[in-house]
Amino acid sequence: MREILFLAHRIPWPADRGDKIRSHHILKRLCEMAPVHVGTFADDDRDMGFAEAMDGLVASRHVELRSKPQWQAGIEGLLTGQPISVRSFASPSIQSWVNARIASGVVSHIFCFSGQMAQYVPMDFRGRFIMDFVDVDSAKFESYAGEGHSLMRWVNRREGRVLARFESEIAQRADASLLVSEAEAKLFQDRTGASTVMAMGNGIDTGFYDPDGQYNKLHPPFPDPLIVFTGQMDYRPNVEAVSDFAHHAMPMIRAQHPEATFAIVGRNPTQAVSDLSMLPGVQVTGAVDDVRTWLAAADVIVAPLRIARGIQNKVLEAMAMAKPVIASPAAAEGIDAEHGQHLFVEENIAAEAARVCALLAEPGSGLAIGQAARMHVIAHYGWRSQLALLDRLMGLVTDDPQ
Prior knowledge:
Blueprint: E1 3-8, H1 18-33, E2 36-42, H2 45-48, E3 60-65, H3 70-80, H4 84-87, H5 92-103, E4 107-113, E5 128-134, H6 137-144, H7 150-173, E6 176-179, H8 182-192, E7 197-199, E8 226-230, H9 236-256, E9 261-265, H10 271-274, E10 282-286, H11 291-297, E11 300-303, H12 313-320, E12 325-327, H13 329-332, E13 344-345, H14 349-361, H15 363-380, H16 383-386, H17 388-394
Parallel strand pairs: 1-2, 1-4, 2-3, 4-5, 5-6, 6-7, 8-9, 8-11, 9-10, 11-12, 12-13
Helix pairs in contact: 6-7, 9-14
Organism: Sphingorhabdus contaminans
GO molecular function, one term: glycosyltransferase activity
Keywords: Transferase
């Protein structure tokens, strides 16, 4: 029997944030190939509520609420010599479930999504092991090592070093290591020396992200002009991006466009993000029913991330909605699109503010680049084409669904 074990650090249902969008579509494609057993974590009770949604699709599942506090993971990491981020996802019950699935003799393939879950793949597994690192997590921690107080700098330096070693060890075991972009794949290969490193990009559902689709519109009176950022608002790069934009870009923008509003759209805003709503022209929405409502209402979408790895789904979603996007070089990296033709890539906060002002002054130019962006995404970022590599790597006979 040829069946697949799918391991993910976060339940791949629903596809409502960056990492879950990728894992969701990969899981659906794997289920077209063979029966799939899913082992994963839920961040909270809301995510646990989606576990049953997978029952009609997967052969079996083990979804566990992740409740280990960070301090405990830190102590475990220091005592064992392992990365703290890996110990954060260490669970004896998931390991027992994985062992039982493999002992049943039906699992011929393991697809592991995110490096934290590689700890569950037995050293003696003789089937095919595909590892999707998505991006180079160790490099992210290394970039944090120069910031904050001395203890956190030490923790991040250690995490970058220990995690890099862990990534290299896993890459040597895996039949293939996947990264989300060619740039991430090259960086990972240079760091690990692994020979089977490949890029498998993210796609976008252009039927769902369609400016002419069926979704609730933002009822008037809504802010005009409107600048929008979307993302998970307890994720550090997003928090830093919106704080920088709200404090430094918005005063420059409102000097020319006094009624401009910056809407920060996304769930779980930290206190630092919520406090930004006290600034002139800044609105923090928290979780919304449908992000398309805000994308459609926006005059400009911004993605001013200073630290980013891989492909930013928020950029592809905005492009699919035919909106002009202003992205930092970090946010645009990995996206095959031309500056000034499909989006704008600006080097710093002053250039981002100037570009926003120019687009608000000439709405027609934003409309034109938005239309070009949508056509580009339709042509190059469909999930079927992005996952073609997955079909070859798994080596399972499939019927191409219509």
